[in-house]
Amino acid sequence: MKVLFVSGEGLPFSSTGGLADVIGSLPKALAANYEEDDIRVILPLYASTKEKFAAELNYEFSKTVNLAWRHQYCGVFSIKRDGVTYYFIDNEFYFKRSTLYGQYDDGERFAFFSRAVIDILPDIDFFPDILHCNDWQSALAILYLRLSYSYDERYRQIKTLYTIHNIEYQGKFGLESLGDLFGLDERDRSVVEYNHCVNLTKGAIVCADRVTTVSERYASEIQTEFYASGLHYVLRLFRDKICGITNGIDEVYYNPKNDPIIARQYDAETIELKKECKRELQELCGLPVRDDVPLIAMISRLTAHKGFDLVKYILPEMLTEDRQFVLLGTGEPELENFFRNMQSMHPKKVRAFIQYDKDLSKKIYAGADMFLMPSKSEPCGLAQMICSEYGTVPIVRETGGLADTIQPYNRYTGEGNGFTFRNYNAHEMKDAVERAEELYRDKDKWQQFCADIMKIDFSWNVSAEKYRQIYQSLLD
Ligand code: GLC
């Protein structure tokens, strides 16, 4: 089977969040588990990727990509690793920028990228059985395949899967962009038009053979108005082709037993060594080095749907008690300032790292006692699984993938693998933290609990198999 993944980001080459983790691990897992398959990935060649991987990148060829009235240079580079072939689309005008997204011409940049993906298939001599696109940055690849290339038998037989990693990011543009920017025909307007915009996610949902999202719970949640960011009509209409597959994580990359970044390596059997990671983290944060105070961490994009209304509301109250709080993330300026402010008001209790830093994140996963994810919505969430690998206890709201992966601790039976709360309510969140702290004070029980959650299998094995079954069902 030949599978081509398309995404705006993927580890280790580029990353702004969870999508990059998935693209960095699912293709690898498929290649490892199904050796007969040919798994390839296409990504933009951002300036940062070019710099960091200069020595490894192989130049393949270049051509001109035509889209609407534009004729643009397109270089193609490749890297092979872990049984996967990665291609990179080069055009410095579009991708030599300081950030991956959030530029004024994102629509044009990713239209070029998606068009290039479809255009280069004959040149790389790879017509996949399955084209697997992820989020709006690659949605147009499915649209071009179906709307502009279906006259060609080699393209027509390709089956398509579209994965929604987060319905909040839909790729919405003014209607005037239909032909001018995206090169789509007026007769295809109804495919992409939604609420007086061009909506690329809507277009991909309409055109894809199957649609998946990254947890089962989220697949049903997004058919309701509260979670769908306006797309519930479309998602309900096409519900028969939608299903949820929970993400896995890369258990080799996230493994405290041989993680070179953390202060001290440990596993479930030697969990008492985790203390040393806590000490290092407290030193790094300039917080009092104490073993007896609960250290609660958050690593997150600073956006509203991650649950920051609750944190903003209740953190000042929570800091009147004996706790330490560490945050890592960037995002909305108002939230960045809130955490800077908290840090300056409570320098002995709060440390806010307003940055995006993979290595530091591992030190936090290893050094914290508890990990907080009070998301309003959470398609899957990876951090609750990553922190578990490091024996750090997740405290989550019961939504999306958080509800699918974390079962509440039962103090009578000892069952469960974290602490949860149901309603989007700050005091319910605080209550969940306090329940975790109650167990924390019972040192032996706590250590056993932390050791137990480290043993849970959050690898890709089961979920990669589910994707493989969907691919197969499309070919049958
Ligand atoms: C997005 C979602 C997150 C999910 C990730 C990978 O970042 O917000 O919940 O885990 O994509 O699918």
Write the layout of secondary structure elements.
Blueprint (H helix, E strand, L loop, with lengths): L1 E5 L11 H16 L4 E7 L2 H6 L5 E10 L2 E12 L2 E7 L1 H4 L10 H14 L10 E5 L4 H10 L4 H4 L2 E6 L7 E2 L3 H4 L8 H4 E2 L2 E3 H8 L2 E4 L2 H6 L10 H6 L4 E3 L29 H12 L9 E5 L8 H11 L5 E5 L4 H13 L4 E4 L4 H10 L2 E4 L9 H7 L3 E5 L2 H6 L13 E3 L4 H15 L2 H12 L6 H15 L1
Parallel strand pairs: 1-2, 1-6, 2-5, 6-7, 7-11, 11-12, 13-14, 13-16, 14-15, 16-17, 17-18
Antiparallel strand pairs: 3-4, 4-5, 8-10, 9-10
This protein binds alpha-D-glucopyranose.
Could you please describe the fold and organization of this structure?
- The structure is a single chain.
- The protein has 476 residues and is an alpha/beta fold.
- It has two domains: 2-248 and 461-475, Rossmann fold (3-Layer(aba) Sandwich), CATH 3.40.50.2000; 268-454, 3-Layer(aba) Sandwich (Rossmann fold).
- Helices cover 38% and strands 19% of the residues.
- The chain has 20 helices and 18 strands.
- It has helices spanning 18-33, 47-52, 92-95, 106-119, 139-148, 153-156, 177-180, 189-192, 200-207, 216-221, 232-237, 274-285, 308-318, 333-345, 358-367, 383-389, 400-405, 426-440, 443-454, 461-475, and strands spanning 2-6, 38-44, 58-67, 70-81, 84-90, 130-134, 159-164, 172-173, 193-194, 197-199, 210-213, 242-244, 295-299, 324-328, 350-353, 370-373, 393-397, 419-421.
- The strands form three sheets. It has a nine-stranded mixed β-sheet, sandwiched between helices. It has a six-stranded parallel β-sheet with strand order 15-14-13-16-17-18, with helices on both faces. A three-stranded antiparallel β-sheet has the order 8-10-9.
- Helix 13 links the parallel strand 13 and strand 14 (324-328).
- Helix 4 (106-119) packs across helix 5 (139-148).
- It is globular.
- The protein starts with a strand and ends with a helix.
- The model has no long low-confidence stretch (mean pLDDT 97).
- Alpha-D-glucopyranose (GLC) binds next to helix 1.
